[in-house]
Amino acid sequence: MDVKNSNAPVSTTTIDKNKFDRPTDNIYEAISVVSKRATQINSEIKKELLEKLDEFATYNDSLEEVFENKEQIEVSKFYEKLPKPHALAVQEWLEDKIYYRNTEKED
User: Fold this and answer.
1) 5-22, pLDDT tens digit by residue?
2) Calpha distance 50→44 (Å, rounded)
3) Rounded Cα–Cα distance for residues 27 and 46 (Å)
4) Global pTM value
5) Where are the domains of the chain?
6) Could you give the CA distance from residue 88 to residue 68 in angstroms, rounded to a whole number?
7) How far apart are CA 91 and CA 89, in angstroms?
């Protein structure tokens, strides 16, 4: 998933309940699926951010020296401005981009 080019809202928006639970006919199941996807998105974003910030890491034993790196600050600001993982997951859900299945119903 390309988080940077997503059209997910950055702020809170109201979603029609009937549209949200249409694929499952169960609001709790829909929320569970979206919640699990949001956790996956969050771990992907966190991993990517840590990899980028690791490029700027300096390993000094001195506590007195603090370096302010402008590129590191820009990377951090960029990730702060991205839509939150739950908003991205809800957007994917509404666009039918999340595959899910209920193993209990398959019996």
Assistant:
1) 788 888 888 999 999 999
2) 10
3) 28
4) 0.82
5) 16-94
6) 31
7) 5
